[in-house]
Design goal:
Blueprint: H1 21-28, E1 32-36, E2 39-42, H2 44-63, E3 67-68, E4 74-76, H3 77-83, E5 94-97, E6 103-106, H4 111-121, E7 130-139, E8 154-164, H5 167-187, E9 192-196, E10 205-213, E11 219-224, E12 230-232, E13 253-256, H6 263-270, E14 278-285, E15 288-295, H7 302-309, E16 314-316, H8 319-326, E17 342-347, E18 356-359, E19 365-370, E20 380-382, E21 400-415, H9 417-421, E22 425-427, E23 433-435, E24 437-444, H10 445-455, E25 457-458, E26 461-462, E27 473-477, H11 483-498, E28 503-506, H12 512-522, E29 526-530, E30 538-543, E31 549-553, H13 554-565
Length: 567
């Protein structure tokens, strides 16, 4: 394919809005262009890589027993109302009205649509289990689109759904998908880990995220330094045991702490360590106010709080709501004297604290020498904090360390979450109606493309893995004014294409330096440069990633190329 006939608009300068390497390089190398904030067009090079990633996904989905289909992006609101997500999914759901004022949403995901199809078309256990998937554009109105393809408002996704008559059957399909995802990301040559995760707005339980390890990732992975345990930091349980200090209980005392708003401020003002204080935060869990108490050096994990209450939403109460309920602002909250309308929950670490400090529920005052149970009652103690580096691994093997990750895939055991709400049932072998059991499995296809670039680049550009590169060979004519170079390039181009090798032929009327720079930027795995020794039949053969190069005679070039590509 001739580069002169292809849209490959490379840039020398880095776009001002591009923060991450993947965003910078995909724009500079002419793979994508922004159409609107968080919305991108895939130019020919980008589309070629996208198609190769999609084909890997298709092959592994088919191998796992799933069947491809295509569902509409425009979904009627009634389906989302049936599942209950029309009001709970949040502002990320793109909503619109047609000319008849009927409400629709642009598909952020397709659980509702697929469940409605299967409930109407599958009536017998004989048709189960069933696995279906699609590769399609999704829409989510991100509040702050950023990082190019990693956080957009429109993106390409593979979503699959399985339907079952038993949880054992679901377990089997879940494992097939889990294994398929491992193969997909291995074939994309990514350094990744499968981690225990939260199902979020998807519902259900038992879920894993597939995280590409990267310092620019927005998610934190907690993993053991000696075992295979890995989890999203939100889901990692804390199994650390706490010893009660051998310290005599002191009389409680109220002290003034003027203008001390944070835990750190109070600790410094009262001359004690941060872990000697109690932190209290007010949350709204659905419609219930909950005061969560942790040690001063710990952070409240709102996902754990949500799971304890099996709530739909959890959010911090406003200062006005907090003052109305308890009489004090954020800086002076504490569990002592909390009203009956407020649930008081405490992290497990709090139970063994002695002579600690907490807010007095009066602005500008704190209590010192506070002791749980003696001075305040707790409705229940739970694991309510984020795990920290150095904590014992939840599997009991090793200590926890942190790494950053980019989420590229997610698998869920939905159970009966959607089927119950949407009346999706089947008749068993006794003719009795039963609710279907579901699984859900997603891969961010366009996000995977960006994650590959985050792991495969150098100072000069992208270094694509061979099997998903836009082309296998980049053929450069260094001086198109030299007839012998043009003639040899045309000959090589034909030889390689006849052999079924994907070639991008740079026949442009550009200087050699421009062509070399563009070739490095685009990142095709191997480059053939036709230059000064063309009249002798010699070309330069170079590997993009290692930089290793050699001169090869045209009579041996096809053998050299096939060896490099391991064809």
């Amino acid at each position: 394919m001739k580069q002169s006939e292809m849209l490959v608009p490379t840039l020398r300068e880095t776009p001002a809005e591009a923060e991450l390497k993947s965003h910078q390089l995909l724009v500079r190398a002419g793979f994508i262009r922004q159409t609107a904030s968080g919305v991108y067009s895939f130019l020919p090079l980008g589309k070629r890589v996208l198609r190769k990633v999609e084909e890997i996904v298709r092959e592994e989905m088919n191998r796992a027993g799933a069947h491809e289909m295509l569902m509409p992006a425009m979904q009627p609101a009634e389906l989302w109302m049936e599942s209950g997500r029309w009001n709970t999914f949040g502002p990320e759901l793109v909503r619109l009205n047609d000319r008849h004022q009927r409400e629709f949403a642009l598909g952020a995901t397709h659980e509702e649509v697929i469940t409605s199809i299967i409930r109407d078309e599958v009536k017998s256990y004989k048709k189960l289990p069933l696995m279906l998937y699609q590769i399609q554009t999704k829409f989510r109105d991100e509040k702050r689109p950023r990082f190019g393809l990693l956080r957009g408002r429109e993106f390409i996704m593979k979503d699959a759904y399985s339907f079952h008559d038993s949880f054992e059957s679901l377990d089997g399909s879940y494992q097939k998908m889990f294994d398929a995802y491992n193969r997909i990301f291995e074939r994309c040559h990514l350094n990744f880990r499968a981690v225990i995760a939260d199902s979020g707005a998807m519902g259900g339980k038992d879920t894993h995220e597939f995280m590409v390890l990267s310092d620019v990732g927005e998610d934190t992975i907690a993993y053991s330094d000696t075992s295979s345990y890995a989890a999203n930091i939100e889901m990692a349980p804390v199994i650390t045991s706490y010893q009660k200090p051998e310290e005599a209980l002191q009389p409680i005392e109220k002290v003034a702490t003027p203008n001390q708003k944070t835990m750190k401020d109070v600790a410094e003002y009262l001359h004690h360590a941060l872990d000697k204080g109690l932190k209290a935060l007010m949350f709204k869990v659905d419609d219930q106010l909950v005061l969560v108490v942790t040690r001063g050096d710990h952070e409240v994990n709102d996902i754990k709080l949500k799971n304890i209450y099996k709530a739909s939403t959890v959010e911090l109460a406003t200062e006005e709501e907090t003052k109305s309920a308890i009489g004090a602002g954020f800086g002076s909250l504490g569990p002592i004297g909390a009203p009956d309308t407020v649930d008081v929950l405490a992290d497990n670490a709090v139970k063994n604290m002695v002579n600690t400090t907490c807010g007095a529920n009066e602005d500008g005052y704190h209590f010192v020498n506070v002791n749980p149970e003696r001075d305040f009652k707790v409705k229940a103690y739970h694991d309510l904090r984020f795990i920290t580096e150095g904590d014992v691994s939840p599997d009991g093997h090793g200590m926890i360390q942190f790494a950053k990750g980019i989420e590229v895939g997610h698998v869920f055991k939905l159970g009966r979450f959607y089927a119950e709400k949407m009346n999706a049932s089947y008749l068993d072998d006794q003719g009795k109606a039963n609710t279907m059991i579901m699984g859900c499995y997603g891969i961010g296809v366009s996000r995977t493309l960006a994650a590959v670039v985050e792991q495969y680049h150098d100072d000069n550009g992208i270094t694509w893995p061979q099997n998903i590169a836009p082309f296998q060979i980049h053929l450069l004519t260094l001086n198109v004014k030299k007839e012998e170079q043009v003639s040899l390039s045309e000959q090589i181009h034909q030889i390689l294409e006849d052999a079924g090798i994907e070639v991008l032929y740079d026949d442009r009327k550009e200087r050699a330096g421009v062509k070399f720079a563009d070739s490095d930027l685009i990142g095709i795995p191997y480059r053939i440069s036709v230059g000064k020794r063309a009249d002798e039949g010699y070309v330069e053969f170079k590997e993009r990633k290692s930089g290793q190069q050699e001169e090869v005679h045209v009579s041996h070039l096809l053998d050299r190329v096939t060896k490099a590509l391991a064809l």
